[in-house]
Amino acid sequence: MEPSLLMTCFEPFAGRSTNTSMRLLGPMLVSPPSGVATRVLPVDFKALRRIVPRLVRTLRPKRWLLLGEHASTERMRCERVAINTLDGTVADNNGRLPSGKAVRGGPAAYFATLDPARLVTHFEQHGIPASLSDDAGTYACNFALYLALHHGRRHGTPVEVGFVHVPRSYRRTGQGLQVLRASMADLANKLAEEDCEAA
Ligand code: PCA
Predict the structure, then answer these.
(1) Which domain CATH number covers 43?
(2) Residue of 192, 194, 185 whose CA lies nearest to 67
(3) What's residue 193's pLDDT?
(4) Which listed site, 2, 57, 81, 164, has its alpha carbon 20 to 30 Å from 39?
(5) How many domains are there within the chain?
(6) How many Å lie between the centroid of ligand 1 and the Cα of residue 139?
């Protein structure tokens, strides 16, 4: 059956051994709740260009919430926008530096369709600092969000796509791993159960 919700995180990159977005999905990567599919995305621009549309086509989730880590934040950054620009000073896991456009001829930007304000409220209810962000960067996270919104629009699903940048040093949120993981599991259950608003 098609999952109501796809939740993704990213693999480690830039020579690190872990990615906090993976740690926060934690047990859900092995046994996702009912109606939820989980995947780890590569930090590889060429592979993302192939994998993101394939997930849209084959899984056909109603919603897609992407998670990635952010090096220098203390809050959950609920992203509002993805831009059609690739840039970065760190090679991806395939040894390539990003440059150019996410999609040649694509719109300059897409707004996230999974309401980021709603995500902020969710985390705050769990006692986790969170805020809206207009800057998902120009690296793999922005790229994956842009591609998911672009292909979602073309295929009619996912209807809602959102992105949360989690703090690399998650302890800076003032909460421990168990609280953060519980907030993700609760969010997954809510998003898998509810009807989409953006249709
Ligand atoms: N953060 C990077 C890529 C993968 C991740 O977790 C980013 O912000 O683009």
Answers:
(1) 3.40.630.20
(2) 185
(3) 94
(4) 81
(5) 1
(6) 6
